[in-house]
Write a structure and sequence with these properties.
CATH class of the largest domain: Alpha Beta
Strand order of the largest sheet: 3-2-1-4-5-11-10
Order of helices and strands: HHEHEHEEHEHEEEEHEE
CATH superfamily of the largest domain: Vaccinia Virus protein VP39
Number of domains: 2
Shape: globular
CATH topology of the largest domain: Rossmann fold
Mean pLDDT: 92
Radius of gyration: 18 Å
Distance between the termini: 39 Å
Number of helices: 7
Structural class: alpha/beta
């Protein structure tokens, strides 16, 4: 991708995502962080966006490092953290070329791993495994294969709001297991509207393939229907993965 994803609409991202309950999302992550074989203190969030989850995790007492590819997103996140009075170290980094510093847990929320091609996942999981402390956790969620193929694929969406309107056109590229997203935003600037265009690629990952790849990297991993502790179903739209680096060979997921 030539352009940095999410740069085009960083300043209205929170408006478009206002229906998400980040506190509930963070509590869900917190539940699985507490189950790690080691006590988790230092957490890195990759793909932090405007910082909502990182801020909530910091408010729970975790020591946060938050990374994102978009400098505009990071600037908004840093200002929000300052207003909330929490200390977070922000850094610009591409998760597809991530260098993970030593930490107890890595969190990738809201489709972050859908931006990594399938062929890069083994190396990514191996890098994360090497960077995590023994007993550490890797927590992430994805938009499911079902959602990308049958709900978003080859669809056109439109929304008109007071501050922003947008067209969102998707093209399912089935032979490459990915979906190309073309977004056009019209942002209100006084009496006029400013147009911004962005193109994103999300990759389709199968649950069993991800679990197998995690296990090959050394993790003990399970998948859940997001927001629950139940196995994912055929039509689950979001799937959550909890993967732990063993303290020792006999360690099991709690």
């Amino acid at each position: 991708m030539d352009k940095v994803i999410y740069d085009a609409f960083a300043d209205v991202y929170d408006l478009l995502m206002e229906d998400i309950d980040y506190c509930a999302w963070t509590q869900y992550l917190h539940r699985f962080l507490q189950r790690a074989p080691r006590k988790v203190r230092k957490v890195t969030e990759a793909g932090c966006g405007t910082g909502n989850i990182s801020i909530c995790l910091a408010q729970l007492g975790y020591l946060l490092t938050a990374t994102d590819l978009s400098q505009e997103m990071l600037a908004i996140a840093a200002e929000k953290a300052r207003k909330e009075g929490v200390q977070i170290m922000f850094a610009r980094q591409d998760i597809r070329q991530m260098a993970l510093g030593r930490c107890d847990a890595l969190v990738c929320a809201c489709d972050v791993l859908n931006y990594i091609p399938q062929k890069r996942l083994p190396a990514f999981f191996e890098q994360v495994y090497a960077g995590l402390a023994k007993g550490g956790a890797l927590l992430f969620d994805i938009s499911s294969s079902y959602k990308l193929r049958y709900i978003l694929g080859n669809q056109l969406f439109f929304e008109d709001r007071e501050a922003v309107s947008y067209f969102w056109r998707n093209h399912l590229q089935d032979s490459e297991n990915r979906i190309a997203m073309e977004l056009t935003f019209f942002m209100k600037k006084g009496e006029l509207y400013e147009r911004r265009d962005e193109r994103q690629i999300q990759y389709i990952h199968e649950t069993e393939t991800l679990l197998k790849t995690l296990q090959q990297a050394g993790f003990l991993a399970q998948a859940y229907e997001f927001g629950t502790e139940l196995p994912p179903q055929e039509k689950s739209e979001r799937i959550f993965f909890a993967a732990y680096k063993p303290l020792a060979a006999s360690t099991e997921i709690k």
